[in-house]
């Protein structure tokens, strides 16, 4: 297509949200009118399904749950007055709590104010808070935030060492919808021990954000934690940033949570329109469908050209891949759906993998995120009449052109500034795009059966560890791996037994492995 036709196509397909100052450009996705026409019936159905979802249908049939993250941004559309009331009460509870922490009404036992937050959670209970903190936490936030989002012992040590001196004034947020996620539980137990080792009263530093009646909520009540905030069963982890999960840490950091909610609400209104061209989330879903033939054949590379949006791609990775990556569709057919998402930030990644995007295997489409405001304040020249921000723009659009010239498609999202409203709007834009796309491909976007399978397998491995340790202790003499596996009644798990023993041995735990490490079958194991 020549420059004039491209310019026309750009204008034909440009979406602009006046209130938010947000642009969406899908003109560099090379679909044609026939494709758009062919998608219209699917979109008509997707809009209907979304309407039913917002009205309180059980849109997550496997778990028998409603899907209500849209109500959080506009409680007036909650399906019952009780739900509306619950959302509003929870919001004022959050604001009130943040205010009390800021003014010292809620304070640690031995100091007048909390100075730091330690947030323990994983997946949807971490990625949103991490993204929003990086994007929006003010320079002089009332409380600094730190995260434990893994069960890596060395990672926990590094973090605890880093904040050791601040522990007496640290507020711990334990965030887990289920209240049973082992990674989070482990982090909490280690943090609890760290508090105890410094003679600090952990419950008087702790707050739980969790599902009603969960094990975590019960623990918080029994031990007298400072407070608890509910995670509603109708909000999924990956769409929970605008629930207590994201709003509690954001409010504590002094981020304008009403601004985030307002931006999301405005975007929700725009993406509720049952009109393909006037609905930015539908335009995204259309583009994704086109890129990957509705089968995820192309990966989504997300490149925000703004350091503060660095974690947006990681946030979207969970949102898109956990929602869409499904083996079965809603009719039970095996479909192996999904869209792989990766990305970091521009222009940094141009010096990493963009070489392959420009010239290598064409198995992706790009999403550029542009921010019009370079910085607050004056930019010095780095060349005659040229600033660093001009370079960033040049790199973004240079890459867009270079990849298009090589038949690689891209979407561009442009926001005026990184602020609470635009961040809320971005979250809402992608929530809806994922929901609409899920309808197009007929999958349940709101469950995650694959993750549950992984969790189950992990717990079986831990059971196996307990079993083999009992055998080793009872035997009192060295055993070959074969003998051990037989005695533990787990001959079919011999490779896993070997790996458990290798790990225990490497950490100086209860066992010693002897023999030729290059030949696992030659090893024998004894109690240390
Ligand atoms: O908030 P929870 O229940 O600890 O779950 C954390 C994460 O684990 C998952 O359930 C599975 O990885 C995610 O969907 C969720 O965001």
UniProtKB/TrEMBL annotation:
Function summary: Catalyzes the reversible isomerization of glucose-6-phosphate to fructose-6-phosphate.
First-listed, main subcellular location of the protein, grouped into a coarse class: cytoplasm
Major enzyme class: isomerase
Catalytic site positions: 322, 351, 455
Taxonomic source organism: Laspinema olomoucense D3b
Protein name in the entry: Glucose-6-phosphate isomerase
One Pfam family per UniProt: PGI
Organism ancestry: Bacteria, Bacillati, Cyanobacteriota, Cyanophyceae, Oscillatoriophycideae
InterPro entries: G6P_Isomerase, Phosphoglucose_isomerase_CS, SIS_dom_sf, SIS_PGI_1, SIS_PGI_2
């Amino acid at each position: 297509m020549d420059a004039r036709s491209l310019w026309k196509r750009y204008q034909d397909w440009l979406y602009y949200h006046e209130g938010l100052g947000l642009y969406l450009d899908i003109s560099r996705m090379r679909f044609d009118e026939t494709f758009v026409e062919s998608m219209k019936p699917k979109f008509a159905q997707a809009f209907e399904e979304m309407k039913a979802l917002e009205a309180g249908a059980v849109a997550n049939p496997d778990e028998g749950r409603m899907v209500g993250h849209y109500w959080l941004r506009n409680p007036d559309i909650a399906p019952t007055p009780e739900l509306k009331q619950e959302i509003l009460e929870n919001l004022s509870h959050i604001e009130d709590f943040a205010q009390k922490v800021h003014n010292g009404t809620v304070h640690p036992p031995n100091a007048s104010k909390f100075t730091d937050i330690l947030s323990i959670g994983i997946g949807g209970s971490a990625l949103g808070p991490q993204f929003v903190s990086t994007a929006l936490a003010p320079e002089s936030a009332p409380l600094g935030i730190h995260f434990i989002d893994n069960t890596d012992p060395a990672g926990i040590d590094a973090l605890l060492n880093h904040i050791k001196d601040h522990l007496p004034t640290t507020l711990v947020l334990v965030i887990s919808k289920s209240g049973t996620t082992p990674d989070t539980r482990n982090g909490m137990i280690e943090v609890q021990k760290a508090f105890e080792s410094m003679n600090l009263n952990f419950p008087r530093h702790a707050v739980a954000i969790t599902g009603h009646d969960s094990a975590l909520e019960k623990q918080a009540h029994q031990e007298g934690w400072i407070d608890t905030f509910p995670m509603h069963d109708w909000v999924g982890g990956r769409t929970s940033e605008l629930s207590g999960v994201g709003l509690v840490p954001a409010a504590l950091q002094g981020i304008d949570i009403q601004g985030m909610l307002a931006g999301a609400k405005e975007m929700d209104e725009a993406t509720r329109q049952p009109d393909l061209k006037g609905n930015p989330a539908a335009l995204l879903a259309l583009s994704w469908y086109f890129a990957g033939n509705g089968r995820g054949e192309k990966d989504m590379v997300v490149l925000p050209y703004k350091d503060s949006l660095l974690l947006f791609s990681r946030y979207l990775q969970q949102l898109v891949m956990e929602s869409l990556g499904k083996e079965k569709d809603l009719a039970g057919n095996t479909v192996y759906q999904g869209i792989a998402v990766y990305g970091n930030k521009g222009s940094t990644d141009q010096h990493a993998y963009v070489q392959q995007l420009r010239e290598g295997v064409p198995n992706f489409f790009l999403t550029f995120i542009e921010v019009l405001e370079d910085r607050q304040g004056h930019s010095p020249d780095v060349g005659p009449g040229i600033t660093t921000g001009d370079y960033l723009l040049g790199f973004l659009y240079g890459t867009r052109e270079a990849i298009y010239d090589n038949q690689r498609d891209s979407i561009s999202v442009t926001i005026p500034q990184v602020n609470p409203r635009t961040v809320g709007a971005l979250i809402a834009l992608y929530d809806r795009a994922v929901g609409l796309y899920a309808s197009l491909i007929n999958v349940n976007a709101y469950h995650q059966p694959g993750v549950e399978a992984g969790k189950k397998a992990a717990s079986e491995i831990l059971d196996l560890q307990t079993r083999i340790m009992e055998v080793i202790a009872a035997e009192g003499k060295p055993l070959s791996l074969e003998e051990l596996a037989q005695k533990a009644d787990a001959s079919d798990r011999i490779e896993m037994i070997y790996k458990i023993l290798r790990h225990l041995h490497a950490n100086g735990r209860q066992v010693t492995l002897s023999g030729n490490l290059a030949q696992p079958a030659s090893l024998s194991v004894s109690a240390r």
